[in-house]
Design goal:
single chain, 267 residues, alpha+beta, Type Iii Antifreeze Protein Isoform Hplc 12, 2 domains, two-stranded antiparallel sheet, 5 helices, 11 strands
Length: 267
């Protein structure tokens, strides 16, 4: 008795491809694959073009920034202007936020119109990083009482008074006192005077250094006052931006009650 076989027979694709119909089908599939690849590549290209054309906001120097300029001074002095630039024209490491400049100084000259980049700046621990272009850090020597040594600290604000002995062409010398500058920031102050503990009798002879944040126009008068007179530092309360009217203090105007002489000092 003969038994028929129903075994599954796989199609022979090689024979199918060798036919005219098979060749057409294979060509069509290849064309579809090529079209898909081309469409994908075009989309990627268009995306790249659009991305490069999208603007980014970066900081551009509005004037020349000299090497050594503090980043904080650049930020506070607005030595830049935010500028919208196409992405493809943005420099590597371009700075977009002034927070990136804090505690740093410029390591090279930056010219007007030039983008500020991270490579143009380096960290610094010096006082210069906290100074604006018109500010100067100046250290003066004071005694314990006149300089409030141990009572004023970094970040405090003080008024600076200067006392002199005037020597007119005729007559005896006369002491005067005037407000030299007000609301001056203390950058650094000693916690105690040199030489250890202070006895009540020799406190005035103990010397200590205090570093103040003054303007370029105030540095000269302060240096003169320290060298040729006596300087007082007077601690100010917080959040007090200005003083009342100032006058020259002398024995006639203040102690004897006659009319005061206006000092013309900064209020």
């Amino acid at each position: 008795m003969e038994v028929s076989s129903n075994k599954y027979t796989r199609p022979d694709w090689r024979k199918f491809v060798a036919t005219r119909r098979g060749t057409v089908v294979v060509a069509g599939v290849c064309a579809l694959i090529a079209a898909a690849i081309l469409i994908f590549a075009m989309q990627r290209y268009r995306h790249g073009i659009n991305t490069e054309s999208n603007p980014e906001t970066v900081l551009v120097a509005s004037g020349e920034i000299q090497k050594g300029t503090a980043g904080d001074a650049i930020a506070s002095g607005q030595l830049f202007k935010p500028t919208s630039i196409p992405t493809k024209q943005v420099s590597a490491g371009a700075v977009a936020d002034t927070a990136q400049l804090r505690g740093k100084v410029a390591t090279t000259n930056i010219y007007p119109g030039q983008q500020l980049t991270a490579s143009d700046f380096a960290p610094t621990g010096g006082l210069s990083a906290s100074l604006a272009p018109e500010q100067r850090a100046m250290t003066i020597t004071v005694d314990t009482a006149h300089g409030m040594v141990g009572q004023i600290h970094e970040g405090d604000h003080v008024d600076v008074y200067a006392g002199f002995n005037l020597e007119p062409p005729t007559g005896r010398s006369r002491p005067v006192l005037r407000l030299l500058m007000s609301n001056v920031q203390v950058l650094k102050a000693s916690s105690s005077a040199g030489g250890g503990g202070l006895a009540a009798g020799n406190a005035a002879s103990q010397q200590s250094n205090v570093t103040l944040n003054v303007t370029d126009s105030e540095a000269g008068p302060l240096a003169f006052a320290v060298d040729n007179g006596k300087v007082w530092l007077v601690l100010r309360p917080a959040n007090t931006p200005s003083n009342g009217p100032s006058s020259i203090v002398n024995v006639d105007s203040e102690l004897l009650g006659t009319a005061p002489v206006n000092s013309g000092g900064k209020p």
